[in-house]
What we know:
- By secondary structure, the protein is α/β, with parallel strands linked by helices.
- It is built from 9 helices and 12 strands.
- The protein has a single domain, classed as Rossmann fold, CATH 3.40.50.
- The protein has a 10-stranded mixed sheet with strand order 1-2-4-3-5-6-7-12-11-10, sandwiched between helices. A two-stranded antiparallel sheet has the order 8-9.
Amino acid sequence: MNRWLLLGLITLLAGCSRGGLSFEVDGQTRSYILTVPESLPEDPVPLLLALHQFSDTARGMQRLSGFDAIAAREGFIVCYPQGRYRIWNAGQREDESDVAFLTALVAQLETEYDIDPDRVYATGISAGGMMANYLACRTDILAAIAPVAGTPVRAVLDQCAREHPIPVLSIHGVQDNIVPYAGGDVSTGGGDMSFVSAAEMAAAWARINGCADTAPAAEVLEPLDSNDASRVTRYRYDCPEVVPVVFLSVGGAGHTWPGRDNWYPSFIVGATSMQLDASEAIWAFLSAHRRHAG
């Protein structure tokens, strides 16, 4: 059976996935896909924003991440917002339209569903990961974030000021040359951008959270496939302990979402690691935290 047909059947059985939803924000029509499992707890439920990569779509992020199945199993709502022109304004230029969109979207969904405002989370890959970082710096609506291959431009974290600390899980492939693991200047169609390295991003969030001049604890994770020589190393900042910053360094991986089929050509984005199921790891991390903890 075609795997997209199979995914569609699973989604249909798991709950209601509604595409083509839209509303007006600052004179612009903005769209999104929403998946609401048929069976939800009676108490207010978490909301996850899952943000697509550059040139992709909300539907593409839905297929890539597999969060619908996790939402059905764990009892939360997942929303896949659509960036205008398939991009996100994540601090590369003076444009707050996507911050306004996502903030308004969360507020709108909170009026339509019984969502716990202290358990709203954001994840994303590449530009979507950058947007998760930016949204956390520009608003206080999120309980935790989990960017994948999405370190922001340097100015975002240099200028980030938050009233409350926020837990952060970052996942980045060591062989990522698109959003470079080691950071640096990258030339794009929109001009040159200077990215922080994956390690610098984790250290910056630790500093923003009040954890200065402290080295992270490092641990090599047990591989899912013992025949694969690549490894995932976890770096964890634990001060304060209730708002950790965790960085998963994925050996041998490129600009991809670990554990899931990536349909962009490997000669462009690099290899996909199957040593980590990023979607499961992300939800396990995010769901353990509430807004303003600590």
